[in-house]
Task: structure prediction
Amino acid sequence: MRRIATLLAAGVLITSACSGSGPSVDEYASSIESLAGAHADEVITLADRNISELDVAVARLQDEVEGDELATAAVAETARLASQLFAGIGDALDRYVQQLDELDAPPDLETDHRAYIVALEGSRSGLAPLISDLSAAATFDDIDRAIASSGFSDAQPRVVATCTSLERGIGTLGPTVDLRCEPGG
Result:
């Protein structure tokens, strides 16, 4: 009898080791919350730095030029710095998506996890055309239009929706998490 119990216990261990059940919901929740927080902090830092650089650039331009030349230079500097910001966001997204790709999700969350990654990739794919459009901007309206009509901006509602769905899914199965789904969140 003891031998049968030992064999059954060994069989259960082997089966569970080979089942590939993935991490626990708690482990996954902790990992993804940490990754999401680091990504959101990086994007906020990029945006804050960009605003500071723009303030310095505008002050410098106001000291150096005036009139139409000032407006032209301000548009060019704003477009250049916006391009830098979005390029930095692209780099941050690349790292974040790679980290999410490497993170194993529990089976019950795999679909939401994958949908979130796909939404982030869609957002990322809109950045190259946006940066190109910014380089052609001749007015502040052109800059606003390039950003507002970009694939990057268009993808943001889907990113928020898939992130929120993943956040809720984790909360349904385990701990409440804050994946900072809202922009600037």
User: Anything to note?
Assistant: Residues 1-19 have pLDDT under 50 and may be disordered. DSSP finds seven helices and no strands in the chain. The CA atoms of residues 116 and 181 lie 10 Å apart. Residues 25-64 form the longest helix (40 residues).
